[in-house]
Amino acid sequence: EDKVVQSPLSLVVHEGDTVTLNCSYEVTNFRSLLWYKQEKKAPTFLFMLTSSGIEKKSGRLSSILDKKELFSILNITDTQTGDSAVYLCASNFGNEKLTFGTGTRLTIIP
Amino acid sequence: NAGVTQTPKFQVLKTGQSMTLQCAQDMNHEYMSWYRQDPGMGLRLIHYSVGAGITDQGEVPNGYNVSRSTTEDFPLRLLSAAPSQTSVYFCASRPGGLGETQYFGPGTRLLVL
Questions:
Q1: CB B46: neighbour CB atoms within 10 A?
Q2: Which of A33, A77, A107, B80 could make a disulfide contact with A12, Cβ separation 3.0–4.6 Å?
Q3: Which residues of B touch A98 (CB under 8 A)?
């Protein structure tokens, strides 16, 4: 069964800290891995990863994929209160089927 | 562009009632999907469509119907609402091909009593 597992389930850090969120997957027909940020409403897209070892970066956020070990990490440096959200990882195993993890709830304390 | 729109934002139903959740997108996207989000469960795919006239089941399709008569619209029908269908429902769309970024609607919060 295709599965995406995220860890930790929740994380509380202070402003300025660096955090690493983890996503492991087991999918039979892997195409891509996606990261989303969800605040109060709909998830918003962060990154899509398809190739191993190539870091994607956007400001203080970066992500990388390891297709051999079947995991991805999302790093956030110099965290700010606006980074508080649920971060979702999802894997595409063909066509339109995205399998989501349960998410990591990140809370940044000022 | 309005992007992906969903109506209503919030709905209360009694067990056994039926209703339709509306979803529309104005980006000419081929692919559209419906997800439900429950606490601790993440997002789960209900139904999806890869183009007008084509639909398929996702992970949790029971109790829901969909149709795709136009590219723009992808309504989700609850045939006979049950308390287990209390959830937040998200519609999403994306272009066809390798561009797999999904755009999500704002969600519909459904409470079934």
A1: 23
A2: A107
A3: 33, 43, 45, 102
Segment B48-70 shows an average pLDDT of 94
Pairwise CB contact (< 8 Å): B104 & A34:
no
**Residue B39 contacts A where some CB pair is shorter than 8 Å:** no
What's the one-letter identity of residue B28?
N
CB A19 within 8 Å of CB A106: yes
**What would the pLDDT profile of A47-83 be if each residue is shown by its tens digit?**
999 888 889 999 999 999 998 889 999 999 999 999 9
Q: Which residue has the tokens 């402003």?
A: A15
Question: If you average pLDDT over residues B70-86, what whole number do you get?
Answer: 96
Q: Kindly state the DSSP code that residue B98 receives in the 8-state scheme.
A: T
DSSP-derived secondary structure letter, A53 = T
B76 φ/ψ sector (left φ>0, alpha ψ -120 to 50, else beta)? beta
